């Protein structure tokens, strides 16, 4: 059965207006170099030199590392709103629609980089969730921070695939400052068994899902989910906003 995720229309509009306003100026989440690239991980892409369909995650990591090395950079971005063939785990399948409508649409932005790369809070806020989603290809160690707009509306930022030990000094309810280091990038297998990267996602309404808020959506529901997790391009000014929007691959 399909879900129908929705947020309060007025609240979502107010948060979106704040995020689009000139007063919104986030600090860097990851301090990249000037040579970072954007990776095409969309369905049918051969940008990494091989098909990503049913590709073992270890080989995927090797291909990403080769692309970064060829570009002379330590940083590669994975796009928001991009339908991908990488998600072959049962974690992303629904029993009734496993074949016809799997979860394939990426709802955040990935930053592929070296393990132990520092991660900073882009905004002042509070630790809302600290947990470890240990299932294969899940978030692994993760944080969700809670933030306020200038008018008091609440929204969230999610950080997945972290180093578990980097969270030892973080506690739910703890205040964080803009620019404060909150974690480091994890490595396999503790990070969900992915190549080292940060999954960053904006969330305008948690829908009561807490740590189970999805990072990947079914195509039949992508409009609703992406409205709740809009393109966070302004958090990554080193990239052209349109280069981070993977809906062009749909």
Q: How do you describe this structure in short?
A:
The protein has 250 residues and is α+β, with helices and mostly antiparallel strands.
Proportion in helices: 10-25%
Count of runs of 4 or more consecutive helical residues:
3
Structural class: alpha+beta
Question: So, the CATH homologous superfamily?
Answer: Glucose Permease (Domain IIA)
Strand order of the largest sheet: 1-2-4-11-8-7-6-9
Number of strands: 12
SSE string, helices as H and strands as E: HEHEEEEEEEEEEEH
Question: Characteristics of this structure?
Answer:
single chain; 250 residues; alpha+beta; Glucose Permease (Domain IIA); 8-stranded mixed sheet; two-stranded antiparallel ribbon; 23% strand
Structure commentary:
The structure is a single chain. The protein has 250 residues and is an alpha+beta fold. It has one domain: Distorted Sandwich (Glucose Permease (Domain IIA)), CATH 2.70.70. The chain is 14% helix and 23% strand. The strands form three sheets. An eight-stranded mixed sheet has the order 1-2-4-11-8-7-6-9, with helices on one face. The longest helix has 15 residues. About 4% of the residues have low confidence.
Task: Lay out the secondary structure.
Layout: H1 9-20, E1 37-39, H2 57-71, E2 76-78, E3 103-106, E4 109-112, E5 118-120, E6 125-133, E7 140-148, E8 154-160, E9 175-176, E10 181-184, E11 197-203, E12 216-218, H3 222-228
Parallel strand pairs: 1-2
Antiparallel strand pairs: 2-4, 3-12, 4-11, 5-10, 6-7, 6-9, 7-8, 8-11
